[in-house]
Write a structure and sequence with these properties.
The complex is a heterodimer. Chain A is mostly helical. Chain A is built from 15 helices and 2 strands. Chain A has one domain. Helices cover 72% and strands 1% of the residues of chain A. In chain A, helix 1 packs antiparallel against helix 6, helix 12 crosses helix 13 and helix 13 packs antiparallel against helix 14. Chain B has a single domain, classed as 3-Layer(aba) Sandwich (Rossmann fold), CATH 3.40.50. Chain B is 36% helix and 26% strand. In chain B, a hairpin with a 2-residue loop joins strand 4 and strand 5. The termini of chain B are far apart. The chains are: A mainly alpha, B alpha/beta. Chain B: This is ABC transporter ATP-binding protein. Chain B: Pfam families: ABC_tran.
Chain lengths: 327, 237
């Protein structure tokens, strides 16, 4: 826009953002570099740790689409995550399908679950919505515990295929590459939403739903889109879980750590941008992984709690907020 | 299409056992400047909320541009050209001033959602210079202007301005009035809900008075303000 049309502004315009194609290319390049680096290390634990971290990148990014962009705090992240994991178990057992088709089906199951949850709960706001999503987790866990086909309360064992696809040196490496692609895709989707008309509408309804409606924003429709996308992506994050540990049972799949981490990671990184959940997930899950190895796995939630309290006090807008003067 | 842009017929609204509006009939012609006044609690904002779709009305009906509004959600009414401002400014606090205006431009479906359009809207309310600021950096009068910019970005046929002058200084009231006159000259029909009598008498071609949820007067400002019933409603016996 030229100065001849618009009067000079007292502050400079915001910096240009990277274009969609450029962003996808940068994400793909970062993914390729990470895979090559991990392959260079040649350690199964390195693959496991990277998969663990990347899984949380997908989960936190997915949560942030509804919780951060739209302002609807979802306490039921574990339900969607476990729905994805158990879709892999059920579909794998019923049709003998491999990981990739299971991820696709998990996305559909999570999307449908998100849409259903949205239809039932999105007239609620604040604490009422949060409690409703928490209930979803309880209901779904009860259902899984009583569904013997997927192992019920005993859990189910998943054997990794002997053949390692696409020339990977191990199934752990393949799994890590798949989750890395999912993480890159999740970030790209979140970033696309953020700069899109949908993102603008979600930001408006997050700030003031009545004012957004008065400005022509179809708030209910946008919320349903957000719950569906967020639900689908959270289920996708959970879909590789049975292959990661070769065993899955309801208590761990619906574990509190997934629900807490899904919320804490975007809050620590910053909910206003796609980069916030990425930073929060990498930081917190790396810290948890390090604590598991050096101290004990029981220290995980303690660490999350302490870091979350510190950030709520010191940087309520997360790490991203510390670097953004205007917001 | 008749020159009546809005027709309210026997509109009623209750909150539990309390009747907030009862039998309100009102017609507003295209291009008119109507003042809607009444003491606190008389039902002005309830009427606005019923008209904008924020509250469902229990009785009666609204017809906008010869089409019934029943069953339409607030965003659908906004897209049809019925815009409102809020009594207390309600900016989208996480968005810049320009992004605030881009919301109705993007979703109103009545114009291009470009940065140029947003800047044009902001220029019309003298806020172009603060396009990249956050709402928390604006003064009270600038927030009122932002409310107006957001409403006018919908390119409305009818704009309801709900107490836009409240708490403003004499000069600031004049600034908002000048803006509203400019919008009206551009063809926008305006209903002004206001307690600042200087502003409402200066602006309105016609006054309607609500008292305790009922319309007690409707006509030229001088005639309406001279009515004993109106005087009694404002000053008591």
């Amino acid at each position: 826009m030229s100065d001849a049309i618009i009067p000079a502004l007292p502050r400079p315009a915001p910096p240009r953002r990277l274009g969609h194609a450029g962003f996808w290319l940068a994400a793909a390049a970062a993914a390729a570099i990470l895979i090559l680096a991990l392959r260079g290390m040649g350690s199964e634990y390195a693959y496991f740790a990277a998969t663990f971290v990347l899984q949380y990148v997908v989960l936190a990014t997915a949560w942030n689409i509804l919780g951060g962009y739209a302002g609807y705090v979802n306490f039921g992240a574990a339900a969607f995550f476990a729905a994805g994991a158990y879709t892999t178990v059920a579909v794998g057992k019923a049709f003998g399908l491999g990981l990739l088709p299971c991820i696709g089906i998990a996305a559909m199951v999570g999307g449908a679950l998100g849409l259903g949850t949205g239809i039932l709960t999105l007239r609620l706001r604040g604490a009422y919505f949060a409690i409703a999503t928490l209930c979803l987790s309880v209901v779904l866990q009860t259902f899984i515990v009583n569904w013997s086909y997927v192992g019920g309360s005993r859990g189910a064992y998943i054997l990794r295929p002997r053949d390692v696809p696409f020339g990977f040196d191990s199934y752990g490496g393949y799994l890590c590459a798949v989750v890395l692609v999912l993480a890159a895709a999740a970030i790209a989707i979140a970033r696309s939403i953020e700069v899109s008309r949908l993102g603008l509408g979600l930001a408006a309804l997050r700030d003031d739903e009545a004012a957004a409606e008065a400005a022509g924003v179809p708030t209910l429709r946008l919320k349903l889109i957000a719950t569906s996308i967020s639900g689908a992506m959270m289920a996708v994050a959970g879909a590789p879980l049975p292959y990661l540990g070769s065993y899955i049972e309801p208590t761990s799949a619906f574990g509190l750590s997934y629900a807490v981490n899904a919320i804490a990671m975007p809050l620590i990184g910053g909910t206003a941008s796609w980069a916030g959940p990425l930073i929060g997930a990498v930081l917190l899950s790396s810290l948890q992984q390090a604590a598991t190895v050096t101290i004990s796995s029981a220290a995980n939630l303690l660490i999350v709690g302490v870091v979350l309290v510190v950030f709520v006090c010191v940087a309520p807008r997360g790490i991203i907020g510390l670097f953004r003067r205007r917001r | 299409m008749s020159d009546v842009v809005l027709r309210a017929h026997a509109v009623g609204k209750r909150f539990g056992g309390f009747t907030a509006l009862s039998g309100i009939d009102l017609e507003v012609r295209a291009g008119e400047r109507l003042g809607l006044i009444g003491p606190n609690g008389s039902g002005k904002s309830t009427f606005t909320n019923c008209l904008a779709g924020a509250f469902p009305s229990h009785d009666g009906s609204f017809t906008f541009k010869d089409a019934p509004l029943a069953g339409l959600k607030p965003h659908q009414r906004a897209r049809q050209g019925l815009a409102r401002t809020f009594q207390l400014p309600r900016p989208f606090r996480g968005l810049t001033v320009a992004e605030n205006v881009r919301v109705p431009l993007s979703f109103g479906g009545r114009g291009a959602a470009t940065m140029e359009s947003a800047m044009a809207c902001l220029e019309s309310v003298d806020l172009a210079g603060k396009a990249h600021r956050m709402p928390k950096e604006l003064t009270q009068v600038e927030l009122r202007r932002l409310e107006l910019a957001r409403a006018t970005a919908l390119q409305p046929e009818l704009l309801i301005v709900d107490e836009a002058m409240a708490g403003l200084s004499h000069t600031e009231v004049d600034q908002i009035l000048a803006l509203l006159f400019r919008l009206n000259e551009g063809g926008t029909t305006i209903i002004m809900i206001e307690h600042v009598m200087r502003a409402v008498t200066e602006f309105s071609q016609r006054l309607a008075v609500l008292v305790a949820g009922r319309k007690i007067a409707d006509g030229p400002p001088a005639d309406v303000l001279a009515l004993p019933a109106v005087e009694e409603a404002y000053l008591g016996r």
